[in-house]
Fold these 2 entries.
Entry 1:
Amino acid sequence: AAAAAAAAAVAVAGGGGGSLSRLTTAAEVSVGRRRASPPALLRVSELLGGRCHPEFAAKVPATTSSHSGSEKKKAPARDATASASSVVWILQRHIRPWLIDGRKFHMRALLLCVGDLAAFMHEDIRILVATRKFVDASADPTCTAALVTNMGANQREDGYSDVAQNLCTDTLGDFGLDAEEIRSEASHILSLTLSRLLAAGRRQFFTLPNCWELFGVDLLVEGGTGRIVLLEVNPSPSLAMYGSGDSACLRSSLLGGRQPLEEETFEVRALPSTWRALSIPIDEQ
């Protein structure tokens, strides 16, 4: 059985400084200036032998993200008499990544949503790099050290180096990318995503004037084209890539040591210069 979807839904309840949003509907859709149709999602009853065509990667509902460009999980062992419909897979076209010294990476941006609605993106988009060369995954598709770019997962790998695998945005200039263009394109993608969410109504994105929330946004750069693709938006994001210490202290430091809303008036406070205000085009489709 097969079904196509224009956009995937991602739950983003709770976290940050308040319960600002409940559901986004723009995950894993490229919405940058280099427009492209969103990847088709195909539901199938079984993935033969747990393997898939190189152009596709398997995604299983309710698995956690690996930040690999698409989620992947080995098919569970199945009894020969089990119903063909007892296991559901979703296939997505794989995004061939831009590489840093032959290794895959994804970008983690911070999105701050305040009140009803002001939005800001932190200028320091972190570049999180896999531990092993991407070519290693060609010979061994289970080589997560080459496919998964999640910082926590890579810290458990032999050979992990925070200096080489947790980079600031400006280092992209050493690998054929323009850092300021990356920031500009990422802010455009987030502005357009928020615009579409607001246009969809409060059932999709429930903003409140007295709440704020910090999200972690994962983006991937497509190899060859430099196209930026939005992978997902996470509530209560890990901030470990921004320094040591607990999340509350790191969040406070990033926000300039105070809440982004005035307690009495709920006016948006001035943020440190490291935050870029987003212009949200409400009527853009």
Entry 2:
Amino acid sequence: TTEKVPSLGYRLCFNCCPCCVVGCSSESARRSWRQFLCSFSTIFALLQVVFLFLTIQLGGGTVSFEENPMIGPHYHALDPVGAKNAAKILVNNEWWRLLTGMMLHVGWLHLAGNLLVQLRMGCVLEMLWGHGAWLAVYITSGIYANLLSCVAHPNQLGAGSSGALCGLVGAWLSFILITWNQTLPSDIAERNMQTFTIAMSIVIILASSFMPMMDIAAHGGGVAMGIGIAMVIFGWRLQHLATRWATLCAGVVLVGALVGVTTYMFVTQ
């Protein structure tokens, strides 16, 4: 019997959003939907949609394309609702902006681009790592990305979850390298392809960060923190004792150095 090959449309739909093609008839399909809808990736996505809607309403509506090509409110409307503002963080001790800034977006196009990554890659990694590990990587990377952005761009408002998403990419690379020798022989080709894809993604992220309206500090900082925090979280998976402790210690040192040096540069600038 010849096995039926899925159509191009089916494969594209599955690669973009697997839940759209699994249906709801079977118990496994319903379980997949529950996992998707109850994931932090989806919950944060819904909150980010709500926050952008409220920001637009509180900011007087959507401005012209010339003022905001991302189709959203005026940039000044982001500041009262918690955008990254280096001056207010430093002078008024509004450190909470490092967290709230990653929940805000400058427009619908900005939000849509990030949600495509968050709801596809983010959900897959959350199922793979577990909710706690995913949340730790996402939040820590996002906060650090905003902190480094304060140092690199102290006179600019900042908003967006791209730093946190870059942290997931960096953590994914660490996770694959840590579990490199734990791959089944049948999965080696897929592991190698994932490693290549992640490495290319990091290159593209950093290269595209030089484009207008992009924040290379937030993107690069997110990747670096993701790599470091993943070494701390997943280092225990290493089977060789010396390598395990070396990885855990290196991760702690990397995370500590990133936070310590960046915080010092920020408060003394």
